Amino acid sequence: MPEQSMHADRSASEEFGPEASSGRVDDYLAAQNEPTAQDAEAKAYLLSLEKRIREEVAHMRAEGKYPPSLARRVRTYYRTLLPDGAASGQRDFDAIFNTVDRIAYMDIDVPTASAKPGVAFAKRALRTLMAWYLNYLAQQFNNFATNLVHLLGITDARIGAIEARMDTSAFRATELLDTTASVRVQAETSAKVAEILSEVRGRILVAECTDGALLERLVEGGLNAYGVESRPGLLQTAESRGLELREAGTLEHLASVAAGSLSALVLSGLVDRESAATRVAALAHARRVLEAGAPLVLACASPQAFDEPANRVEADLSPGRPYAAQTWEFLLGRLGFDSVTIESFKAGHYLVVCGNARRTPELGALADNKVVLQALEPPKERRR
Amino acid sequence: MSGIHHFLPMLAKGDGVGNNARAMAKRLAELGVPSRFYADLDKAGVASGNHLDYAKVAEPGDILIYHIATSSPMTTYLARRSEALAVVYQNITPPEYFAPYDTTAAAIQKRAQGEVAMLAERTLLALTPSSFNAEDLHAAGYSEVAEFPIIFDPVDFIGHSSQAVEEVLANLQAKGLANWLFVGRLVPNKAQEHLIMALHAHREMYGDSAVLHLVGRPSYPGYVAALHGLALELGVADRVNFVMGVASDELAAFYRKSDLFISASEHEGFCMPIVEALFHGLPVLAYDAGAIPQTLGIGGVHLAERDPAVLAAWARLIATDPELRARLRRLGREQLSRVAPTATIPAFDRAVARMIELSGSPLAPDFEAESAIVIQSREILDRLSEEFA
Fold it and tell me: Complex ipTM, two decimals?
């Protein structure tokens, strides 16, 4: 930011106001961060090192020194160390519920011991004198607290029953859907995705990457792509191809990616089988992590393709079903993506391609707002 | 005589909010504008009283600057007064980070968020050090938001460096261990667990060749216990150095002699330790979060994705590649000049002019007056440039 002196002959609004006013805050901020030639040089230099780092990490991982599965085990272990409520899970709910149940009781038997002479006697006397009054208050409070905790217990049981019937969070279907069943991105579709993304120069994420076939194709095309997959069997297959991978759920991974840091995103799997809330949450994350104008590609299966015998297990165990292309078009438009195009392939597969439109400050705040994203997330797996 | 007066829930030396307010007051004095502090807890001993004392000496044309940092009765007090109001917002950490550890702290943060919104309509101009914070303010309904980095006095960064700490760090280096430094309270939003995970990844990938120094006071025993437990389980407990509270000379030694500053923080409104690291020529490596991309700018390496292996690989490269270290020091120096008082004081002058214009106050600051902080900064930065070159 170049140094500017204050000129007495210019009005304050000329100096400061227009740039800072709410309507033009974007321009003001952009001017503050206007890149210089030195910025571009620094960025290029660090990008060259990033490539070196990426290759080194991939090489290390290929040697088994810090596989994605170990990173996940470490994260999982850390969650067990956190206090109640710091990690999502039924364990936390139960623990907090029990704590509330234990402390929802007012004890009027006040300790009266004291090292000072006479004080213990005075305390005992006060306790005796006030007992009728405190007892009256305590009875009311304990009555209220007991009923409240009872009500919480009933509510918990009712919500648990509803969730169990809805099948959306009783278990994570993907945990059962390892190598045996998964709708893969077809070769023809992969070729088209590679063609669409061939000009992308920045970072590309493929989630879920299943066995890594599409990801491999992108990497072979000279693209800077990496994949995310949560199923150990599929991950192992993808790892054997020497690809850069993370073992994580798609939403879990997207939440850890900085805003505007991806140049393209390919979503598959999740777009066919997850609940509506999860799909919308993934799109909201995509809006946040993609650069303005960057392409989002959804590799989808039609309901017929999803129900093919090869995919039957996945279809039966999944909480959601594939959408028609028009549904994606509607959702993407509502969430601020533009230039939506749809291309169909044989065997009931189709691609939805769109761009991440430049966001207004209001929409930017909305997309980055954790509360909104949390509201979009599916219920946590926290029922008995 | 009317003036521009500062309201802070707490005023203390060494505190980021307090330092910023003091630097503003110093500049206002140079501009010929009277400026007083009102703090409910005055640890620096410079306040004219608590917020209620202001009413006794209020003058027509006064402008009040509220440095909002936590929940305080000042908010409702200022909301009801008629003087022109500006707000300085350095961010309120979201309560969900604290809730599992301290419900009361979380409730206070929640209330503080509400108080930020409470003043939105009443505030003429909001000042904040990052666009990350500016989004909070827009969401809360503020109509005019201006952004410039926190004003710091570089003199505060210059001081005696502890020989004892320098020797400890040098001994570790002599044993082939790189010194990773993070400075910041041990709180969940700083996510020190990610640094421990990266240290573990580093050991898995490159062997036992780094030590992590976590310098900062603990706030929640449960969080510290989790960090200890993680380090123990991963077998790196002997390589994680919890430094819970340091003297200024010890802190200076950590900045001067470490190999890199490493941050995994998840939520930062500005992150002054990064600026301090840049000042000391320490290469900075950080995950992108909150205002960090803006504060760090081109001055260091920021990573978009949280991956312990990638963080470890970068840390390894920075610690072992002298050319990269030299380059990062130069870039850091450049970034420092963008957030230094040479840039922030003129921005503050413009903010003062705008406040006066919006409020119609009769104050007439002498904007041609030289700034002592700017002069000192220029000298210090020039000296640093020579040193880094």
Answer: 0.86
What residues does each domain of chain A span?
Answer: 104-166, 176-376
Could A33 and B313 be called an inter-chain contact, meaning their C-beta atoms sit closer than 8 Å? no
Which residues in chain B have Cβ-Cβ distances shorter than 8 Å to A65?
204-205
Confirm or reject contact between A11 and chain B (CB < 8 A).
yes
Given pLDDT bands bounded at 50, 70 and 90, which one contains residue A353? Answer: very high
Rounded distance between C-alpha atoms, residue A44 and residue B232, angstroms: 39
Fold assignment, A176-376: Rossmann fold (3.40.50)
Does A55 touch chain B if contact means CB atoms closer than 8 Å?
no
Tokens 């800077």: give the residue.
Answer: A224
Asked if the Cβ–Cβ distance from B288 to A261 is below 8 Å, we say yes
Residue A281 C-alpha, separation from nearest chain B C-alpha, in angstroms = 18
Q: A95 to chain B: which residues are within 8 Å by CB?
A: none
Consecutive 10-residue averages of pLDDT for chain B (389 residues): 94 85 94 95 90 94 94 93 95 86 83 93 94 91 90 83 94 96 94 97 96 93 92 95 90 95 94 93 94 92 92 96 92 90 92 94 93 88 73
How confident is the model over A151-202, as pLDDT tens digits? 988 988 888 777 666 654 444 555 555 544 456 777 888 899 999 999 999 9
Could you please report the per-residue DSSP string of A127-188? HHHHHHHHHHHHHHHHHHHHHHHHHHHHHHHHHHHHHHHH-SSSS-HHHH-STT---PPPHH
B99 and A85 within 8 Å at the Cβ level: the answer is yes
Q: Could you give the 3-state DSSP secondary structure of residue A64?
A: coil
Residue of A nearest to B146 (CA): A20
Tell me what the mean pLDDT of segment A271-292 comes to: 89
Identity (one letter) of the amino acid at B258?
A: S
A372 touches chain B (CB under 8 A): no
Backbone angles phi, psi at B40, to 5 degrees: -75, -25
- The domains located in chain B, with CATH, are 4-152+340-388 (3.40.50.2000), 161-337 (3.40.50.2000)
At how many degrees (to 10) do helices A361-368 and A276-289 cross? 120
**pLDDT band at residue A31 under the 50/70/90 scheme:** very low
Distance, CA of B338 to CA of B345 (rounded, Å):
11
Which residues of B are less than 8 Å from A38 in CB distance? 298, 334
Given a contact cutoff of 8 angstroms between Cβ atoms, the answer to whether B251 and B163 are in contact is: no
Identify the residue among B33, B200, B354, B356 best suited for mutation to test binding to A, counting A beta carbons within 10 A and taking the highest: B354
Choose the closest CB to B310 out of A8, A57, A75: A57
Torsional sign, CA A292, A297, A303, A309: negative
DSSP secondary structure letters along B72-101: -THHHHHHH--SEEEEEE-----GGGTTTT
Task: Tell me if A357 sits within 8 A of A260, measured CB to CB.
Answer: no
Tell me the chain B residues in contact with residue A56 when contact means C-beta distances shorter than 8 Å: 313
Question: CB–CB of A300/A267 below 8 Å?
Answer: no
**Contact present, B182 and B242 (Cβ < 8 Å):** no
Q: Environment class of residue A2 by beta-carbon count within 10 Å: exposed (0-12), middle (13-18) or buried (19+)?
A: exposed
Structure tokens at B237: 């407990």
Q: For A133-151, what is the mean pLDDT? A: 90
Residue corresponding to tokens 């299943």: A210
> How many CB atoms neighbour CB B99 within 10 A?
17
Mean pLDDT over the full length of chain A: 77
